[in-house]
Amino acid sequence: MTDTPIDDTTMNEPPVNEIPFDILQHATLTLPDGQTADLPIVVGSEGEKAVDIARLRATTGYITLDDGYTNTGSCMSDITFIDGEKGILRYRGYPIQEIAKRCSFVEAAQLVIWGELPTPEQRHHFSDILAENSALPEDFLPHFSAFPPHAHPMSILSAMVNALQTYDLPGMTIDSDEEFERVSATLISKVRTIAAASFKSSIGEPIMYPRYDLRYVENFLHMMFSRPYRDYVPSAEATRALNLFLILHADHEQNCSTSTVRMVASGQANLYASVAAGVCALWGPLHGGANQAVIEMLDLIQESGMSTREYITKVKDRTAGIKLMGFGHRVYRSYDPRAQILKQACDDLLESLHITDPRLAIARELEEVALEDDYFVQRKLYPNVDFYSGTILTALGIPPEMFTVIFAIGRVAGWIANWKEIHDSANSRIYRPRQIYTGPNEREWINRFQRERNTTQGFIVPEELRSHTA
Ligand SMILES: CC(C)(COP(=O)(O)OP(=O)(O)OC[C@H]1O[C@@H](n2cnc3c(N)ncnc32)[C@H](O)[C@@H]1OP(=O)(O)O)[C@@H](O)C(=O)NCCC(=O)NCCS
């Protein structure tokens, strides 16, 4: 890498980020070659500080390196605030505890997407368009039977959300507030219908149509559990628990799937494609797939007869390569506030439904053992949102393969809000990180039959052919 400052005018580098307030401070970075860079300090509305390095490469030739983005702010956003040290989570300034107590999921989604709590008129209007858009097009339904039996519902969800766009060609280009509202409502409403349809087709039952008279969560439970000849009527407790689950998953600032949605949106991909990318990113067991992994872990402990202490010992041992699923978080370094709310909700739900789930007892014991153990204390590993959520979903009759799908239904709100920030920003640029290249330097071409055994491909070139040229 050159140590010579690169000419600003030839690099097409970004201007200093568009910062909606005055820069009061700068940091000075001194590099090994003696160059110095004057870097603006950006302060967020909650006092969070960042060093703005947008022009660092243009002025010095250096980039910053932060594998895994532990220390990198990828954007400025008005949506969600987290203080991981203090265990604070707020959507648009409202504490998650308040939202969880007072909101329906649909209201929380409106808050997350549009930034304000909806008025009663806005609430009713949005409910109406959710209902209008809840059913899937008739010629869309046969796609479900084309998936093989036992296909994972997350595969079906991501494919179908993307496919939905082909049934909404005008929704490709959103150029008005009304159109954005319509496409958002379509996604929020239909993602739930697709989720239930993927479940029904995976168990070989007929897909249920949504009902106009039911509210968002009841309608989902109806599509999951009703049969053509028998209506399922969820209990108030079940509805409340699922509503809470969706609220707590509605947004969580720049997590893996939301960053993916922003990345895709930054290339000006449409809202359906961006949300479908979010579904794929959510699937992994280190992210949204953790709720399924927690239940599998609890089942394994129960079935093997191993004690919770033995399991914790295995986790700490690290040779087995297992983690305590549902524990730890990139941002929270104290209790995840969502886990606190869900733990209580889990106790309440199981009590009200008179369910005794041995997994809950194992989860409680694991938590107790881990929170007293130096390994977890020193690394500040606490239960995260996924630790108790699987037990709640199990109590609602939802199978583990559907857990991450339900997470996605909630998170669609946050993905849409983040897509909107990119879409509405006059200064949005394509997300395109740089890298530090560590591969071979330029080298001479090797003709096909002169190539030696290659460790990545393992082929052997017969001796007699080695003299042949490619
Ligand atoms: C969430 C998670 C991916 C965060 O990853 P991260 O920020 O990269 O955390 P790190 O890997 O830097 O963890 C720091 C240390 O704690 C350990 N650690 C983190 N989570 C752990 C867990 N669940 N069980 C055991 N050890 C864990 C790491 O091995 C590392 O140890 P080391 O410093 O001795 O190498 C990680 O905690 C995890 O895998 N948790 C389990 C999966 C899960 O519940 N995901 C849902 C998130 S909401």
What is the secondary structure topology, with strand pairs?
Layout: E1 25-30, E2 36-43, E3 49-51, H1 56-60, E4 80-83, E5 88-91, E6 94-95, H2 96-102, H3 105-114, H4 120-132, H5 142-146, H6 153-164, H7 177-202, H8 216-225, H9 236-248, H10 256-266, H11 271-282, H12 290-304, H13 308-317, H14 337-352, H15 358-371, H16 374-378, H17 386-395, H18 403-424
Antiparallel strand pairs: 1-2, 2-3, 4-5, 5-6
Helix pairs in contact: 3-9, 3-18, 4-7, 6-7, 6-11, 7-8, 7-18, 9-14, 9-17, 9-18, 10-11, 10-18, 11-18, 12-15, 12-17, 14-17
Bound molecules: coenzyme A.
Coenzyme A binds at residues 286, 290, 315, 323-330, 379, 381, 384-386.
What does this protein structure show overall?
This protein is mainly alpha-helical and 470 residues long. It folds into two domains: 8-65, Rubrerythrin, domain 2, CATH 2.20.28; 85-425, Citrate Synthase, domain 1 (Orthogonal Bundle), CATH 1.10.580.10. The protein has 18 helices and six strands. It has helices at 56-60, 96-102, 105-114, 120-132, 142-146, 153-164, 177-202, 216-225, 236-248, 256-266, 271-282, 290-304, 308-317, 337-352, 358-371, 374-378, 386-395, 403-424, and strands at 25-30, 36-43, 49-51, 80-83, 88-91, 94-95. The strands form two sheets. The protein has a three-stranded antiparallel β-sheet with strand order 1-2-3. Strands 4-5-6 form a three-stranded antiparallel β-sheet. A hairpin with a 4-residue loop joins strand 4 (80-83) and strand 5. Helix 9 runs antiparallel to helix 14. The radius of gyration is 25 Å and the shape is globular. Mean pLDDT is 91; it is low at 1-12. It binds coenzyme A (COA). Coenzyme A binds next to loops. Residues 286, 290, 315, 323-330, 379, 381, 384-386 line the site of coenzyme A (COA).
